[in-house]
C-alpha cells in the first residue's frame, strides 16, 4: 500500500476500533451493575484515562530514535494479540470476561467497573489510544512537507462512523460475543497495517529528526498549555454532564450514549477544519455558544414536559454548540507539528480532569447534578477570556460588560436546583443516582404526603395521616398489577401464608398488602433507597407491614441466583419493579432472567412486571419471553384516580385459568425478537 494511503488507513481503522468497542463493552458490563447510567459515566472516565495514557506513551516514544519507536510499539501490539488468544481459551472470548468474573458485591461499583475494563480491553485500548498521535508524528517524520493534522480529522471521522454504526448496524444484527470476535479480528488487521506504516519511519536516523527540530520555533508557553487543558476539560465536562442529564430518566440505551459522543467528535471535525477555523468564523462560534446556552436554560425550564425526540435534539444542539466553541479554540491555538504529541497530551489531560470531576468528584461533593450547570457557566467564562485575548473580535470593545450575561446565565440555570432544594426534606446522591424526598400537600392542604423521587419519576408516596398511612398508593394499589397478583392469588383467598419476592423496593409500598404469616423479600441495589424505606421518618410501609419483611441489598437477579443456589423457598408471587427514573435494566427481562424466575416460582405462581414508561414499550419484549416459556400473559392498565397513578403491568403465569381470572385481556400487538443476555435492542422499543 502506498504511503499516502497507508497512514490515513491505519489511523482510520485504529480510531474506528477505539470507538466501536466503547458501546460494546459498556453494554456488556451494564447488567452486572444494575443497569444504571452511572456505568457509562465510569466507562467514559476509563476511556479518558486510557486516552491520556496512550497520548503520554506516544509523547514518551518521541525521545527515542524512530527505529526504537517502531520496535517497541510493534512488540506491544504483538503481545496484546497473544494475550487475547490466551484469554479466548480462558473466557471463550478475547475481550469479554466470563460470568465468573462478575463481582459478587457492589460495595465499590466504580472500582469494579474500572477493574473489569482494565482486564478486558485495557492493553488493547491503550495502544489504540496512542494511534492518532503516534501515526501523525511518524507521518511528519516520513514527509515533513504535509500537515499531519489532517489525520486528526480522519481519526475523528472514523470514530464518528464507528459510533453511529453501532446502534444501527452492530447492535441490531450481531450478538455481543459476535461483535467482540469481529472487533478482535479488526485489531489484528490494524496491527498489521501499523507494522507496514512503521516501515516508512524505521530507517530515518535520529540525527535527521533532531536537525529538523532545531529549525523550528521555541516550545509553547505555559499559558498555551493551560488554554489547551481548559478548553479540552470544558468539552469533556459538557459531554459527560449532558449525557448524565439526558439519561437520568431515559433508559441507558447505547444510542443515547453514542449520540452525545458522536456530536462531540463532529464538533472536533468541524472545529479542526482550516476553512472554518479562522477569520470571521471566530465570532460566529461565539454566537453559536450564546444560542446553545439559551437553549440549555430553556430545556431546564421545560424539559420535563416536552417529548423524547425534542429533548434529545435540544440536548444534542447544546452539546454540539458548546463543544464546537471549545474545539475550534483548540485548533486556533495548535502548535507546530513537532509539538503535536504534547498538544494531544494536554488535550487528553484536560479530558481526564473533566471526566474525574463528573464521575468521581461530583457524586461525592454535590447532592444535585450541578455539573451540567457548571459546564454551561465554564463555557461562557472561557468565551469571555477568548474575547479578551482576541483584539480582532467585534466583542472586544465591550469585553468587560460580557460578565453580566455570564452572571445571569449562572443565576438562571441554577435556579431550578435551588428551588428543588427548598421543596425537598432530604436529598442524597451516590453511584446509582440522585434520590430526594419531597413534601406535598394533599386533600385541600389538610394532609401532607411524602414522595420518593428519582429525577422526575415518583418511586412511592405515603400520606402522613393515621387513617391513610397504611393505604398503598401510586402504582401499587390493589387494582394495579402488582397488588392484584398478591390480593387475588389463590393462597390469599384461602387465607394461607404467602412468599412474595419483590425486585426493586422504592419506599416498600407493596409491603402494605402483607398479612400475618407472609414473607415479603425485597431485592434492592441502592443502599440509600433501603435506608429511606426502612429507617426514615417519612416512609413506614415496611415497618407497618403485617408480613415478615426481608431486605437483600444487591442486584436483584444476581441475589436471586444466590438464593436459588442456597435453596430458598419458592415464591407465590414475584413482583418486578426495577425502575431508576424511566430506565429499565435490560438484564431483568431477558430469556435467561425469566428462566431464573421460573425456577424460583411455585407451579401456580404469578410474575407481575411493572412497565409504565414514557419512552419504552416493553410489552412486545415480554410477550416474546412469555411465548418462549409457554406462559400465559395479560396486560393490566390502571387509570389515574385519587392516590392511584396511571400504571401498566404485565401479568404472567403457567396457569391460564389463574391469569385470565385476574385479567383476561392478554397482550395485543407485535412480538419482538426474544431478548437474551447476549442480545437486546432498546432502540427498537422506543415509543414513536
UniProtKB/TrEMBL annotation:
Record's keyword terms, sorted: Membrane, Polyamine biosynthesis, Transmembrane, Transmembrane helix
Domain of life: Bacteria
InterPro entries for the chain: SAM-dependent_MTases_sf
Residues spanning the membrane: 39-58, 70-91, 111-128, 149-168, 180-198, 225-243, 255-272, 284-300, 312-331, 343-366, 372-389
SUPFAM superfamilies the UniProt entry points to: S-adenosyl-L-methionine-dependent methyltransferases
GO annotation terms (biological process): polyamine biosynthetic process
PANTHER family according to UniProt: THERMOSPERMINE SYNTHASE ACAULIS5 (PTHR43317:SF1)
Protein name according to UniProt: Polyamine aminopropyltransferase
